[in-house]
Design a protein that fits this description.
With 864 residues, the protein is of the alpha+beta class. The protein is built from 28 helices and 31 strands.
């Protein structure tokens, strides 16, 4: 009998585990091996002699037997050679079943299902054979026979042929196997081919699949490095050097010694640095150079740029020293800061930098809005409030806030003592000031003139309420005067806390290099500006910068200097401002949203770099109602607006983005929740959509059958804007349309609602102007209110006893809440973030610039 090559392979190499040694009597068996679409069929035809048929003669039978005895044509098929095999395509590897290649020592290949154990199959089998031989030592009888059988089994490897459905399991002698190409190895080879073809996305997909199934397969890490390098070059060729640098950075972390990586990274960063310097973006250039130095210390590209930037930095420092010697302190500080920003690794930089910036200290503040922005609101914006706090130093300043009560101090008076049961106030003025103090000295005649301006009905600064209280002013000496009251105020300090000494000063655009012009004689009324403080000065061509400079500079020769200039930098968002703080562009953030602040509080690195100080007074968010609005005169409409808003949800979800609302609470009045002017009988109005709809329908009946579109002013802050949008959605659900008035609208545009953020800490004095929407309390403004409200406001203003006035305010609070004369929303605890090289600020400041002229700033610059 002739045996085909397939039979030889079966007998000598592949042994079916279920076949017996006897030959089959009939039929043929098909053995099929498949790899990457190439099928190899091993067909064996076994010839069996048949029995003679009945009725045939012997000759025919013999002839038939003779004919049948001739062997059928043998179909021989050989196993494919390794050189003939093609690596499966990416699609086959991703979607098809996994297959391993068994490579024999004669370079023939058998394709089978995945082999176990893997990947070191032969090594593990050799170890198992050696271990079994050790077990056989000293064994006899049946145990030795068993171990010999087990050893014999170990000399064969079981494989499964994927297309043999009848008898798929076979054994191959280990000695005939050269090596394996597992499915994972085939994936790596296909990845190599894809990388060479530039098909990186598909290569990454294959690598991700491999990593998911076998995280530490040998050779996978090297392929990932190759992919990263090829991807970086591809991104660079596509014009994305920054994206290429990201990939190169990842490769550097994995394998800094990868061939060609250092040169490619240097070329990429060289181009990025050159472009950044050409655009004047020093921080970006510095960032890329530091990145290169972290990857490859003292790289040639880094050394070349470092030498150039060091020279430029020294030139700037020299110019700064010359400006300081000439008395141009702001210019010197600007040049020194520019030098430190350019190349902070300049040798000896701090030694030359410190004397300049500590002589003229600049506080850089990151904000999202500046005071010079156009705004149609009739009320002061938060940015305008910051500017006022810098430029004005009133007679009395809010000093601290304890248990709902604000306490005052003055920089101008040595003493202020009441006589005659409070009807007469004796004031003794200070005759000297510390060099670092920003307020001017004023004498008694000047103070008397300042007060009389407020009492003169013909003056644009006329204060009707103050005129009701003050009967006369008498100057006794240059530093003493007496104020006589016709009605005793409950507290003198809040009555005078908005009076600001005024001087004639050169216009802000003409102030340069610390020059200040203070005249002894009062200027024309239209030219008056606050005396002392920090005056706004021209900030050059940058519209996103606003500078405030000491009106009274500190003299030379002091042992310690203080903040001489406040520079507000505007950013497009609070996130950008926070980024600027971390990058060293600014050193203070006055009003971060709560969700960003909490993130900063939870950051351990931030605790080592910044102080996070709470403000003493929470900020109240409230909807001011225009007393002249015709629709809002309808009580049902005001109540409908109040019931339609789920204030607690908006506070948690929009204002704070904190379910626990740790830094906020719903309120019932415009006063701080700790204020003694709040009535304990007033509780927050509940959210009741049914009541809101019913009241809306009732209001529509009083407004000719339809409620007109209401107009609302909203401050420019992102938190206020987002909260206002939620309020508008709530009102729209019940059929009330509200539109936000654009910031650039005509200031005379009629309005109905105003979203305000404020701090009313003197309820007995603040409630009147708050309700009327005017800066001062005037009788004429009360005409729009009902008689009962007019009488209560006037009675409150004429109460001299503080306790009785607070009790009257609590009763008024109850009435105003019932009548919905305002829509209280919530109050928020706010914080300021300040770098730790700044000292002298309050632990709980009233506002962000409280006592800023006392602050000191140690020399510091970003090093990264």
């Amino acid at each position: 009998m002739l045996f085909s090559l397939a039979n030889r392979l079966r007998c000598c190499v592949i042994h079916p585990q279920s076949a017996t040694a006897a030959a089959c009597n009939s039929a043929s068996q098909l053995r099929s091996l498949a790899a990457s679409g190439i099928a190899m069929c091993l067909a064996v035809f076994l010839i069996a002699g048949g029995q003679p048929a009945v009725g045939q003669d012997e000759n025919e039978t013999e002839e038939s037997e003779t004919d049948d005895a001739e062997p059928a044509e043998s179909e021989e098929a050989s196993l494919p050679k390794l050189a003939e095999m093609e690596i499966p395509t990416a699609e086959e590897l991703l979607t098809g079943p996994p297959r391993d290649w068994v490579i024999l020592k004669n370079s023939e290949v058998i394709v089978c299902e995945p082999i176990v154990p893997r990947p070191e199959t032969l090594e593990l089998r050799a170890q198992a054979i050696d271990q079994k031989k050790l077990e056989m030592r000293g064994k006899k009888g049946e145990e030795l026979t068993r171990l010999r059988d087990e050893l014999n089994d170990l000399n064969y490897l079981e494989i499964t042929l994927p297309e043999d459905l009848e008898n798929p399991e076979y054994r191959i002698e280990i000695v005939k196997i050269d090596r394996f190409l597992h499915h994972e190895d085939l994936m790596l080879r296909r990845i190599d081919a894809l990388v060479s073809e530039g098909r990186l996305d598909t290569a990454f997909e294959l690598l991700v699949r491999l990593k998911r199934t076998w995280d530490d397969w040998r050779g996978m890490a090297e392929r990932y490095d190759d992919l990263l390098f090829a991807d970086a070059k591809q991104r660079l060729e596509a014009g994305g050097p920054e994206r290429a640098l990201v990939t190169l950075g990842e490769l550097n972390e994995r394998n800094p010694g990868y061939p060609g990586l250092a040169d490619l990274a240097g070329n990429v960063i060289d181009g990025l640095v050159s472009n950044a310097l050409a655009e004047g973006n020093v921080r970006m250039a510095r960032h890329f150079l530091f990145r290169l130095d972290d990857m490859y210390p003292q790289h040639a590209v880094f050394a070349r740029h470092s030498e150039s930037l060091t020279q430029k930095t020294n030139d700037l420092l020299t110019a700064a020293e010359e400006a300081q010697a000439a008395g141009r302190l702001p210019e010197a500080a600007d040049l020194a800061w520019e030098a430190a920003q350019l190349w902070p690794r300049t040798p000896g930089l701090m030694a030359r930098y410190r004397p300049i910036v500590e002589r003229y200290q600049q506080l850089r503040v990151g904000v999202v809005h500046l005071a010079d922005e156009v705004d149609s609101s009739p009320y002061e914006t938060p940015a305008e409030a910051r500017a006022r706090q810098l430029t004005e130093i009133p007679l009395f300043e809010k000093d601290r806030f304890r248990n709902g009560t604000v306490y005052y101090r003055t920089r101008y008076f040595d003493e202020w003592e009441p006589f005659d049961l409070g009807r007469r106030l004796q004031i003794t003025l200070r005759q000297s000031r510390q060099p670092w103090e920003a307020q001017p000295l004023i004498d008694a005649p000047r103070l008397a003139s300042l007060l009389e301006t407020r009492l003169d009905p013909g003056s644009d600064l006329y204060d009707e309420r103050l005129a009701w209280f003050i009967d006369s002013i008498r100057v006794q000496t240059p530093v003493e005067l007496t104020i006589r009251f016709r009605r005793v105020p409950p507290r003198v300090e809040p009555l005078l806390d908005e009076i600001v000494p005024m001087e004639a000063r050169t216009s802000a655009s003409e102030l340069t290099d610390g020059e200040v012009s203070l005249q002894d004689e009062p200027a024309e009324e239209g030219e008056r500006t606050p005396a002392g403080g920090f005056a706004p000065v021209a900030s050059g061509s940058d519209p996103d910068v606003m500078t405030f400079r000491r009106a009274i500079p500190e003299p030379d020769g002091l042992p310690q200097y203080h903040v001489g200039e406040v520079i507000e930098h505007r950013y497009i968002s609070h996130e950008k401002a926070l980024q600027a703080l971390k990058q060293g562009e600014v050193s203070m953030l006055p009003d971060l949203p709560d969700w960003i602040l909490r993130r900063l509080q939870q950051d351990e690195n931030s605790a080592t770099s910044y102080f996070i100080q709470p403000y003493a007074i929470p900020t109240t968010h409230i909807l001011q109602l225009n007393p002249h609005s015709r629709p809002l005169r309808v009580r049902e409409l005001r109540r409908s607006l109040a019931y339609a808003v789920d204030r607690d949800s908006i506070l948690r979800d929009t204002v704070l983005r904190d379910y626990d609302a740790a830094h906020g609470r719903v309120v019932t009045s415009p006063f701080p929740s700790r204020s003694p002017a709040n009535s304990l009988d007033v509780e927050p109005r509940s959210f009741d959509i049914s009541a809101a709809v019913a009241l809306m329908l009732a209001a529509a009946g009083q407004l000719d059958g339809a409620i007109p579109v209401l107009k609302m002013h909203v401050p420019p802050g992102p938190v206020e804007r987002a909260a206002a949008e939620e309020l508008i959605k709530s009102w729209k659900r019940i059929g009330i349309e509200v539109e936000i008035i654009p910031a650039d609208a005509d200031p005379q545009t009629p309005w109905d609602l105003h979203y305000r953020t404020l701090q009313l800490v003197e309820p007995t004095l603040d409630v009147w102007p708050f309700l009327t929407g005017e800066p001062t309390a005037e009788m004429a403004d009360l005409a729009v209110f009902p008689d009962w409200l007019q009488q209560q406001l006037i009675a409150l203003d004429r109460t001299s006893d503080l306790g009785r006035s607070l009790a009257a305010t609590r009763r008024l609070h109850e009435a105003l809440w019932s009548e919905v004369r305002f829509l209280p929303l919530w109050e928020v605890d706010q914080f300021m973030v300040i770098r730790k090289n700044i000292l002298g600020f309050r632990a709980e400041p009233i506002h962000c610039y409280q006592d800023v002229d006392h602050w000191t700033i140690s020399a510091w610059f970003p090093t990264e």
